[in-house]
Amino acid sequence: MKLHIVLLAALLAGCSYAIPGSQAVPPGLYGATPAARHHRASHVVQFVYVANFGATNISAYSIAAGGALTPVAGSPFKSEKNPSSLAIDPMGKFVYVTNFGSNDVSAYTIDATSGALKKVEGSPFAAGSNPLTVAVDPSGKFAYVANNGSKNVSAYAIDATSGALTPVNGSPFKAGLRPYAVAVDPTAEFAYVANVVSSNISAYRIDAGSGALTPAKGSPFATGVSPVSLVVHPSGKFAYVACYGSDDISGYAIDATTGALRPLPGSPFADMGSAPEGVFVAPDGNFAYVANSQTFHGFPDFIAAYTIDATRGTLTPVTGSPFKDAGAEAVSGAVDTTSKFAYVANDGSSGVSAYTINAADGALKKVKGSPFKTGSVPFGMAVCRVTAGSCVPSPP
Question: What is the DSSP secondary-structure string of 363-386?
Fold first, then answer.
């Protein structure tokens, strides 16, 4: 089942759609594991978490030296209804999950030894209508949730000890029509929200003390048709948006003073496939990848790969791109913290495709054993690296 396509079609038709085991989706959403114990001392211990929209749970995996995934003990972990995205706080202590079907946000602590998740006391925390995506600011003080149904953004203060969420004063904050994706820049000064129906980006300045949002000068900023994914470059200088309806990538330069967005030279950039659904950038900032779901149109799915110009932010296709996806209906992706592996969630085949990244040119090569099984309809994912007793996420 192609979640993004079906839900966008329902949005345009003004109707709702129900997936098995879920509520109706309204218009607009469309202990140490054996693997960990036997890692060589030089191997970086990392975990991958996947929100399974159809299964109402979270799959957790350890990453082997070659990029293969192994489920951690206890996985999958129960969530509320229809989990759709995840964000890990920068201190590596907590995972936050939006639950589209139950209108709330689940919070978990991460066991950095095993990768296991445990619900935070008081979880889940109320959100707006149909919360779809979540982002945590780089200071670790605040979390932001794009509420697709109520057309706004919920903002929370994070308790640094317990991980509990408390709404900030003034929350929720107005967004555009059907906010779909949310991201925060590396300086923790600005937040951005992609609005799928109004085809624009709402930009906000973040109050460092309270976490409150104030619209940035010139906001909203136009995108291509139906923006469904948004990422800020690790340098904080650029932002990229996957536009499902126009089959392209909108690229912007970020004004470091105001947070305003200015189209990059050559933007929008051709997608090289069709139906771009998830754009993600390697932590080293060298390459960008786009998950394209073409199965619905009768074609193989592809991952488009681009080299990022460090000065101008422009995108140039990697030699050999696009790369055929090993699963069906690619919807989102993430790169590990070492920039060696790329992972793509396939909601049509309920699995995660894994690839090695060529450090010289960004080309992708399938990892042995890929794809790896998830729960039903995997939607969002996040990666973290064990450091000093915590599991610190990949930037951005």
Answer: -EEEPTT-SEE-SSSEEEEEEEEE
Instruction: Output the 3-class SS for 144-207.
Output: EEEECCCCEEEEEEECCCCCCEEECCCCCEECCCCEEEEEECCCCCEEEEEECCCCEEEEEEEC
Instruction: Give yes or no for a contact between 178 and 134, defined as CB atoms under 8 angstroms apart.
Output: no
Amino acid at 126: A
At the topology level, CATH places domain 3-393 in: Methylamine Dehydrogenase; Chain H (2.130.10)
Contact between 220 and 191 under an 8 Å Cβ cutoff? The reply is no
Q: How far apart are the C-alpha atoms of 320 and 98, rounded to whole Å?
A: 36
**Is residue 153 within 8 Å of 173, Cβ to Cβ?**
yes
- Which pLDDT value is given to residue 179? 97
Where do the H-state alpha helices sit in the chain? Answer: 3-13, 34-37
List the one residue out of 264, 231, 224 whose CA is nearest residue 245.
224
**Collapsing DSSP states into helix, strand and coil, what is residue 308?**
strand
* 194 token code pair: 């992609």
Instruction: Count Cβ neighbours within 10 Å for each residue of 295-333 and write b for 16 or more, e otherwise.
Output: bbeeeebbbbbbbbeeeebbbebbeebbbebbbbbbbbb
Asked whether the CA dihedral 35, 37, 39, 45 is positive or negative, the reply is positive
d(CA 171, CA 60): 31
Distance of CA 343 to the CA centre of its chain: 12
Classify the phi-psi angles of 266: left when phi > 0, otherwise alpha if psi is within -120 to 50, otherwise beta.
left
pLDDT on residue 328: 78
CA 1, CA 38: separation in Å to the nearest integer?
37
Report the largest interatomic distance among the alpha carbons of the chain, rounded to a whole angstrom.
Answer: 55
Alpha carbons 112 and 109: distance in angstroms, whole number: 9
Asked whether 180 and 149 are in contact (CB, 8 A), the reply is no
pLDDT along the chain (396 residues), means of 10: 51 39 31 38 84 96 97 97 96 97 98 97 98 96 97 98 98 97 97 97 98 98 96 97 94 98 97 86 96 64 93 96 82 95 92 96 96 95 94 80
